[in-house]
Amino acid sequence: MTRLAGSSKLLRAMNESAALGHLLDPGMLTRSDLRELTALSMPTISEVLRRLTEAGLVTVVGHSSGKPGPNAEIYAANPDAAYAVAVSVRDVGTSGTPSIAAALGDLTGAIRARFESRVDFLTADPVTTLAEVVAQLAEQAAVPAGRIRHVHLSVPGAYDPKTETIRLVDVPGFARPGLVPRIAAALGTDVSVDNDVNLAAVAERRRGAARDAENFALLWLGQDGLGLAIDINGTLLRGTRGAAGEIGYLPLYSPNRKLDLQDLFGGGAILELARDHGIAAGNPAAVVAAAAETSAEFIAAFADRVVVGLAAVVAVLDPSLVVLAGPTAQAGGAPLLDAVNEAFQRAAPLECPVTATALDDDAVLLGALDAGLAAVREALIAAIRES
């Protein structure tokens, strides 16, 4: 990333933010390294590092050796200067997975605390629950609550920032108007909200298969629902009301009843297709995992259905890459990916490479943490510029 820097007194704040930005990216830099990266003079670099060190944002982590003269000090961002928390709320459905996953990360991105739990949101208050989750993480990591600068909340729905309301969400209590401001007030920190599939795309862009893609679409095959994230040159397309990518609602032609993509290859459709093929399993991901081992016929039929949605995505967006992600896609592994690519080739003239997610960990939680840390870093740099 290219960062502007200047040597005059009027550009002091810009110089400091540029230096901090570089220390947050690769870290472990000497004054000479920073001079090369910013094109600032050595006296200016020294003053910048002095101010950042006094502010507690930068620390000396060692000394270089092997060159003539005094050993140079090595600087890095102070990991304990600020923290971010990610909380992933899930619509459990038929999956039986934990309904909340949470993690606390320091300024460098290292995860200091993490846990999962089941919560019955039919009886539990979302505000109280999230406050308890953040407090538990802070206690587990031995982090003062005041150092948590941002909480990023992932939801299986659409967040409308204009009305600060979560829409199209089936988790009880989370569609209530005014919920997000109440959560922020209870936590005493900034709170951001985003769709879970969008955050999976954040992780895929930063850590996974889409790191080098100019733009990409992430097609999410969940245990029950479907989702789509659209990344255009590193920027997520969320839409006016946060509902861009709610592909499960895309209608299909049917003369007899209303159908959409969810009815074609969502969780319920997978279970119905499994019964037609004599496959018995507890949930959609388990069905696809079993079929990947035993039933090429099921995998081919399922891939044909997935390609209906895939073709719509490619026809509208023409992305450079499509990433298949989500527990059901991962359960299908290479057999499902191969079948989808073969089926998509039959959809010519549409063309687009399709690959599988490169993330084995919880992509949604990692993406929420990445987004939360990005917000913390931007806030720190903004504060430096305004000081």
What class, by secondary structure content? alpha/beta
Low-confidence stretches: 1-10
Largest sheet composition: 5 strands, mixed
Span between N and C termini? Answer: 24 Å
What value does the average pLDDT take?
A: 89
The count of β-strands is: 16
Task: Write structural notes for this entry.
The protein is built from 12 helices and 16 strands. With about 375 residues, the protein is α/β, with parallel strands linked by helices. The strands form 5 sheets. It has a 5-stranded mixed β-sheet, sandwiched between helices. Helix 2 crosses helix 3 and helix 10 packs across helix 11.
Task: Give a brief description.
With 387 residues, this protein is α/β, with parallel strands linked by helices.
Tell me the layout of helices and strands:
Blueprint: H1 12-24, H2 31-38, H3 42-54, E1 58-63, E2 73-77, E3 83-89, E4 100-106, E5 111-117, H4 126-141, E6 148-155, E7 158-160, E8 165-167, H5 179-187, E9 190-195, H6 196-207, E10 215-221, E11 226-232, E12 235-236, E13 251-252, E14 259-260, H7 261-265, H8 267-276, H9 284-294, H10 296-317, E15 322-325, H11 327-345, E16 354-356, H12 363-386
Pfam family, one: ROK
InterPro entries: ATPase_NBD, ROK, WH-like_DNA-bd_sf, WH_DNA-bd_sf
Organism: Actinoplanes oblitus
